Amino acid sequence: MKGVRIIGVPMDLGGNRRGVDMGPSVIRVAGLHERLGDLGIAVEDAGNIDVRIAEEFHYGQKDKMYLEEIAQACRRLSRLVCTAHQEERLPLVLGGDHSIAAGTVAGTASFYRSRSEKIGLIWIDAHTDLNTPESSPSGNVHGMPLAAILGLGPPELSQIDGFAPKVDPANAVVIGARSIDEGEKENIRRTGLHVIT
Q1: How far apart, in whole angstroms, are the C-alpha atoms of residue 66 and residue 13?
Q2: I want to staple 191 with a disulfide (CB 3.0 to 4.6 A). Which of 118, 154, 163, 169 is the partner?
């Protein structure tokens, strides 16, 4: 690797709590670039992906709020992540809500797929993020990225870059889950995903 490429995704559309879109700026202001440099890591900052703010448009369907805008951002993110890998840079994605994981993993999976390789995934989270619009109590897309990564849910997320799943459930594990919705439990059984609480 030739170093790290920082990619900011200032998005808070995946949940109903505004403000996490400030994450990339806050992390940068806190000195991320300098701290990585102090460790001898070459750092390149690619800036932020443009993401519309919630006040600019209607959220769409209640079972998958802001899905189209989130999917657009994830498609852009996937391309940037894949390009970073191609250019031997480790993509360091700053968010934003957790819906951006669908784009981050899609870009990594696309890169390795082009080399006929597969990836694994360690998902460390208090939630499994394994909902789909059909199972989600809230309709918040930040509760759906792992489902999309494993090939479940709306094609706008699960089919980013034209293939699914991004990760075979046998090569994925969730660590630290403490809150699992009933629909997520069914998706765990369906996929055979390993969950460690």
Answers
A1: 6
A2: 169
Cis check for the bond before 8: say yes or no (omega within 30 of 0): no
Q: Is the pTM of this model over 0.85?
A: yes
The answer to whether the CB of 51 falls within 8 A of the CB of 11 is yes
CA distance 143 to 140: 6
Rounded to an integer, what distance in angstroms lies between the CA atom of residue 173 and that of residue 167?
11
Token pair 């920082």 is found at 6
* Tens digit of each residue's pLDDT, the chain (197 residues): 899 999 999 999 988 778 899 999 999 999 999 999 999 999 999 999 999 877 676 667 676 778 999 999 999 999 999 999 999 999 999 999 999 999 999 999 999 999 999 999 999 999 999 999 999 988 889 999 999 999 999 999 999 999 999 999 999 999 999 999 999 999 999 999 999 98
Contact between residue 191 and residue 153 where contact means Cβ atoms under 8 Å apart: no
Residue ranges and CATH numbers for the domains of the chain are 4-196 (3.40.800.10)
From 120, 116, 190, select the one nearest 153 (Cα to Cα): 190
Mapping DSSP to helix (H, G, I), strand (E, B) and coil, where does residue 95 land?
strand
